[in-house]
Amino acid sequence: MHPHISSWDLYFDKDEFTFFNTNYETIIKFIRTLRNNVTNKILIIKERGIYKISMRFLVKIISKNQIYEQPENTIKCIACAVSEIIYNEYDIKMYVGIRITNYNIVSSFGVSVSKVEHLVSLIGTVCRVGCKKLIFKKVFFECLKCKEILEIKIVSNVYKTPKKCVGGCKSKKYIFLNDHPELLIKDFQEIKIQEIPNYQNYCGNFENIFDFSDENSEINLDLDFKETNEKSKEKFAINENKEFNEINENRKQSIDLKCDEEYKENSSEYYYDSNEDSKEKIDMNCANELKNKDFGFKEIDNDYENTKKLNMTDCYLFDDLVNTVVPGDVVSVIGIIKAEKESNGLYKLNIYVNNLKILKNKNILNLKKETKDSDFNVFKDISRNKNIICSLAHSLFKNIYGNELIKIGIVLSLFGGTKKFCGNTCIRKEIHVLLIGEPGLGKSKFLTLTSEILPKSTFICGSSTTSAGLTVSMIHDPITSEYVVDAGALVISDNSVCCLDEFDKLNDFKVLYEIMEQQSFTIAKGGVICTVPARTTIISATNPKYGFFKENKTLKENLNFNEALLSRFDLIFVLKDNLDENYNQELSKYIINNDSKKTSSAISTERSDNKISEMIGILRNDITQNLKMNAETVLYQKELISKYISYAREYVNPILSTQAKNILKTFYLSIRNKENVGIRHLEALMRLTEAKAKTELRMIANQKDAEFIINFYKKSMNFSSKNTTNTSKKKVNNVKDIITHLKNLAINTKKTVLSYMELINELNNFEMKKSSQEIIELLNHQGYLIKKERDNYQIVI
Questions:
Q1: Is residue 417 a contact partner of residue 685, using CB atoms and an 8 Å limit?
Q2: What pLDDT, in 10s, does the model give residues 742-771?
Q3: Does residue 661 sit within a domain?
Q4: Together in a domain, 39 and 186
Q5: Which of 50, 78, 101 is the last residue of a domain?
Q6: Where is the MCM C-terminal AAA(+) ATPase domain (predicted)?
């Protein structure tokens, strides 16, 4: 006997119901298989209206091709089966949404027409978020004459009022029933996701990236990355027992730390597994092979002909998926591709999202391998390198000669500090870097290489971007009369790096104030207030105001932006073209060897020369000598360093030891009275010290870290800090004070005629809004100065 399916009309037409329908057989098969699981979760399903089912379980019931090629019909059959089980238990007809999980086939963004009505999975960054809307799926009309009720199923949210009654009275007057119990209305939202460049080169095969199900359970209903990441964090973080004992004795902070025994037990359990037959055995030779491998200098191919625009795809969210993402989130979507006709008569491919997973700020490019024992074993071996920060710097920037301090500063910026909370206020962990120098000194090269290290990193030029392109923009949709939020470069690079070249060419610097300090951006337009996260590390390069750096002027006077923005940078490097003859010889030899592809010769040249002259703009000192490449420097592959940095950024959150705090405090107080520094400089020192500990995967930033950062900070900020204060300049309120001074000078010296340079030097002693040249022209125009021959000026007394 064939059982009747009471929930059939919720998903299919009543006229299609027959016992010989293939959908009927599929639904009966699902009812028999899912009954026990649905019964156990029936209260949750009734409350949420959502049922999650694993692809791993689906392929045991029906063929994989049927799910892939007929996803919409398959999802309806599953939903009908679940609704029928609920109806049999509670005698309630209920529409249920189905969410498919563990679909491991990740498609490319270049979706073709052959994929229409197929199931796909994409990974991308949310770059546009629309407003929440309501769409009708099923509506009801009532005839005003005979009270006949007519049901209409809607496609593409378009419906028409019936022309005449179907009950026989032929009345043309209908009324819409907005309170009908079977009226089906869904929440709807449109988003746009952007392709992540080169993610497949990092990951390779994506199998098991989105496998969140428990192997011992047939069906996965709700499992997140959280448990996996927490276990990884507890299991693999490297501990230093002495520092933990010190913190445990003296701490008065509300920080939850594991005890030494627990860390030690976890570490020994993982790193020193003596079971040779274990399938998860750690390959201890992997790190040694890595060290012994010959990492030669390789040319970086800047093949701009092969570059292409990143693809974007429109996605439609429904029900519980609405309002779950913001611009900048990295998401994986599973959905059905559909072709929709536009107003111009053409068709557009959109994705109707079935399930959405917010990967947020996790490094999705390394999720596949984040639990591999061999990777963590290599990470541990790298962290034991005595001069790890030097190896990282020269591995990432091996094609740039010299500039060791800048390399170290960018490496520390990539690792970042530790996020802190003071009440409801969050103190940022990002380390912002500014490179200042005239054209041709390699600033853009640094930024280009940096943008290729971490995923979601972006490289933009200030002369070709706008404020909206940097942050977010709200676009008015003329069709719906609503606003759509578009994400800019800094929002898309959330929890990553944004490299800003030609920083001085930006139109509006004020948009960066909130992003660089509060790590978010708020926009209010058309009555809509939107706040999006922008936890982005900014590494920028700028040219001096006058084309070259004037040493007789302050750092602020050499730049086109104000001190409020300048103080938000943790590290400032000034590059000057004052190279000596020895440096020019070594640099030219390196460039010629590198251009002729004699990279091994270039490496040996740099490693063998122990008398390399000072870098650009920075004096020779002990710390720079220790950071130079030598025969003992170990170079690592770029992809390995990318994974190493990503792991440290995600799981290693060091705190300062008592000794480190005291050293940083003493240094800050010593320069507070001499230099133009503030609280932000102290916070920068703390972040840099924490980043130094991160490079070695340590949970405690100790005294040596603080001493290293202080020496590094002194040398890297030596020129800029020395020139940030205005030395004995007299502040004037108006031009009358200058006129009075010049008259007194002429009377006291009995000299009324001064040369142009004498006037310039005299006016440079004043702090003025206008330049000295403009003041001289103004006084000459007003008659207080009379220009004589040979650029001489007479002071009118």
A1: no
A2: 888 888 888 888 888 888 878 877 777 677
A3: no
A4: no
A5: 101
A6: 388-591
d(C-alpha 522, C-alpha 661), whole Å: 34
Between the two ends of the chain, the Cα-to-Cα distance in Å is 119
The domain that holds 208 is classified in CATH as 2.40.50.140
Q: What is the pLDDT of residues 578-615, one digit of tens each?
A: 555 666 666 666 666 665 544 444 444 444 443 333 33
- Residues 11 and 581: their CA atoms lie apart, in Å, by 81
- Helix/strand/coil (H/E/C) assignment for every residue in 599-665: HHHHHHHHHHCCCCCCCCCCCCCHHHHHHCCCCCCCCCCHHHHHHHHHHHHHHCCCEECHHHHHHHH
Quick one: pLDDT at residue 431?
A: 92
Q: Is the pLDDT of residue 247 over 50?
A: no
Task: Find out whether 171 and 145 touch, Cβ atoms under 8 Å.
Answer: yes
Split into its structural domains, the chain has a count of: 3
Structure tokens belonging to residue 465: 């971007």
Q: Which two tokens stand for residue 417?
A: 């500090």
Q: What digits encode the pLDDT tens for the residues 113-155?
A: 778 888 888 888 888 888 788 888 788 888 887 888 877 777 6
Provide the residue count of the chain.
797
* Surface-to-core class of residue 277, CB atoms within 10 Å of its CB (0-12 exposed, 13-18 middle, 19+ buried): exposed
**Are the C-beta atoms of residues 195 and 310 closer than 8 Å to each other?**
yes
Tokens standing for residue 204: 């390779």
Whole-angstrom distance, CA of residue 117 vs CA of residue 137 = 19
Q: Which of 354, 369, 384 is the last residue of a domain?
A: 369
209 plus 330 within the same structural domain: yes
Amino acid at 721: S
Range of the domain at 783: 730-795
d(C-alpha 411, C-alpha 399), whole Å: 15
For 378-426, the pLDDT digits (tens) are: 888 888 888 888 888 888 888 777 778 888 899 999 999 998 887 777 8
